[in-house]
Write a structure and sequence with these properties.
alpha/beta, 6-stranded mixed sheet, 31 strands, globular
Length: about 650
């Protein structure tokens, strides 16, 4: 019997699932805490918890990960040289250290507007080749004619042998600058993704598993390892993509809206007839606007590990993530005694980092570029959790929330605190970890909130459920201001909100929120079996999808009476093609579109199953002539993975 293994290396947990290829049944699943900075440890822990006899029979391994997203958010990508051709606009982000703008580029018709300044390119490459790990190139209207990008790539390859990423290789959307940013980020991620996938591959091999290795993309489709290594930028936001695909698979609902409650965030997305809805504008990550096709989603910084804190009798949740008290106590039992001793924090000192339930611990990351004060503070924090009182016990200085913030942002220390997961432990809705730590933390919070323990935890649970409902409705009612939706959720009206599509819940503790959500929204809520490992299932359940766009453009003479085109051009991802007549262009475009889809499927190792290609054609003919001004073709290839 054949089996497949799905792995999702998320921000909080690394999930793994074994599926029987014969009937699609889930044979075994597990969750392990994700380990930073070395993700391999968490992956190995997940592997170890699975049925080892079945694991050796696996023939397909598919992975999703937050590695690319986290690298961009944390600004830890490798240095890259960016070359902009025909665009004199300097980068709008100071994070781009090595760049040059040179003459060149093309018009919207694919004609050269200026010769490529190849000498300036050579000088730049020679000056930075020992400072960067790769290069990125974007030329003006390269989607109409990639000639200049390809020329630059050839020169860089000859001079350095380093990887070169071209904008037209990643996107056919207009916008040379945003394509340049996409190429820049992709080049930053090349070494990191290569190392991660190589690590997974070596671990699979070490365990004697002879399997094809695939990776989930941010549009919910899957791709072979070699293709994934070329375009690592396409792995951003694979977490939400995995949850969406996994939810549809588990619920057997080809059309559904999904609420995925993770440790860090809550994500809402939609699938229609088995295909995820795609964002029109491209993915935005870490403030960078990219041209990467990603699923359309609504997200908020509230999850199971969000920090619950009190100030001026008000309970706030997030946006920061902390280690839940119940989780920390399982590894560091002494935290129980520290909670019983009660921290000496006055009401006037209370803030997000100064809480009676908050502790700090070192991550083990190597410090870089610390100020003297940061170094002094870091030296006081060790491998055992310390309260604010303990950190500053031997110092006459007042606690500094800003210094603590700085060390957290540099990933040198982690915070431990009260969370929604702790609240669920107190209420008896979830018992995965140390409940005593959660109860002690809630008692401390109640002193400053002036509430009863169960009352406080019920309020936290209600706030999380309301946030889930708000995200859901904001996604489905995108033209309505979320503040107006929130008024409807908060009010006591003889009316409410109804959702006409099934709502599937995913995430470890989502079962506890089902009834709370129903108080806010009238909907058919589906809580599928194995919802806690839905992302790992999504890594396997995705289809191979490739979208190709081609444009046929006719050029007419200046006279309004001249209705015969002077030229007909087909623009494709591989270049500009001149045609003799419109009929020839149509035949060429249709043949080329199918060819490019099938070539991608072969390169992505997706050509061993059933492949269907959907073709849509849009004609723009304002002159009402026999030959349209523009004809746009969209080809969508869908491959059902053979297992």
């Amino acid at each position: 019997m054949k089996y497949s293994l799905g792995i999702d290396a998320g921000g909080t947990y690394t999930d793994a699932v074994l599926i029987s290829d014969a009937d699609g049944k889930i044979i075994d699943s597990t969750k392990a805490r994700t380990t930073y900075p070395d993700l391999l440890i968490g992956i190995q822990n997940a592997f170890d918890a699975l049925d080892q006899s079945i694991l050796k029979q696996v023939e397909l391994v598919s992975v999703s990960t937050t590695l690319a997203t986290n690298t961009i958010l944390e600004k830890t990508g490798y240095p890259v040289g960016l070359i902009l051709v025909g665009n004199t606009e300097p980068p709008r982000n100071s994070a781009i250290k090595y760049y040059i703008s040179v003459e060149g580029g093309h018009s919207s018709g694919g004609n050269e507007t200026a010769p490529l300044d190849i000498e300036s390119v050579k000088e730049f490459v020679e000056s930075v080749k020992n400072k960067v790990s790769a290069f990125a190139v974007s030329s003006y209207f390269s989607v109409r004619n990639p000639e200049h990008e390809l020329s630059v790539k050839e020169v860089i390859t000859e001079l350095t042998g380093m990887p070169v990423v071209c904008g037209h290789e990643l996107s056919q959307s207009l916008g040379a600058y945003d394509r340049g940013i996409t190429a820049f980020l992709n080049a930053q991620l090349l070494p990191i993704t290569n190392q991660f996938m190589s690590t997974v591959a070596s671990e699979v091999e070490r365990r004697g598993i002879k399997a094809k290795l695939m990776m989930l993309k941010c549009d919910g489709s899957i791709v072979g390892m070699q293709e994934a290594l070329k375009h690592p930028i396409e792995s951003i936001f694979t977490g939400p993509a995995a949850s969406l695909v996994g939810a549809s698979y588990l619920s057997k609902e080809p059309s559904c809206v999904v609420i995925d409650v993770g440790g860090t965030s809550t994500d809402v997305s939609l699938t229609v007839n088995g295909l995820p809805q795609i964002s029109d504008s491209g993915a935005i990550v870490g403030g960078w606007q990219t041209k990467v096709e990603a699923i359309k989603m609504e997200t908020s910084a509230m999850g199971g590990d969000s920090h619950v804190w009190v100030m001026n009798h008000v309970i706030s949740i997030g946006p920061r993530r902390v280690i839940p008290l119940c989780v920390a106590a399982a590894k560091h039992p002494r935290i129980i005694d520290k909670l019983k001793q009660k921290q000496s924090v006055s009401r006037t000192q209370l803030g997000e980092n100064l809480q009676p339930t908050k502790f700090f611990i070192r991550t083990g990351q190597k410090p870089i570029e610390l100020t003297t004060r940061e170094e002094e503070l870091l030296n006081r924090i060790g491998e055992e959790p310390l309260s604010i009182s303990e950190i500053y016990w031997e110092s006459s200085k007042m606690p500094s929330p800003m210094l603590l913030d700085s060390l957290i942002q540099k990933r040198l220390i982690q915070a431990i605190g009260f969370t929604p997961t702790d609240a669920l432990h107190v209420l008896g809705d979830y018992n995965e970890w140390n409940t005593e730590a959660s109860i002690l933390g809630a008692e401390q919070m109640c002193i400053f909130a002036e509430m009863e323990v169960k009352e406080l935890c019920a309020l936290v649970k209600e706030k999380v459920a309301k946030n889930m409902a708000l995200n859901l409705l904001s996604y489905l009612m995108e033209t309505v201001d979320p503040k107006e939706i929130e008024k409807g959720l908060d009010g006591n009206f003889f009316a409410g909100f109804k959702v006409d599509v099934p709502v599937v819940l995913l995430g470890g503790p989502v079962r506890a929120y089902t009834e709370e959500i129903r108080k806010f929204v009238d909907a058919r809520i589906v809580l599928p079996e194995h919802a806690e490992v839905g992302n790992a299932i999504g890594a396997l359940a995705g289809k191979g999808v490739k979208r190709i766009e081609l444009l046929i453009r006719a050029t007419f003479g200046e006279s309004k009476y001249n209705l015969k085109p002077t030229s007909i051009t087909v623009f494709s991802p591989i270049g500009k093609h001149e045609m003799n007549n419109y009929e020839e262009a149509i035949a060429f475009a249709e043949e080329l579109g199918h060819k490019l889809v099938m070539e991608y499927m072969r390169d992505a190792e997706l050509d061993d199953g059933n492949i269907s290609i959907e073709v849509t054609k849009k004609v723009i003919n304002p002159l009402n002539t026999g030959v349209p001004l523009e004809t746009k073709y969209a080809f969508m290839g869908i491959a059902e993975l053979k297992k």
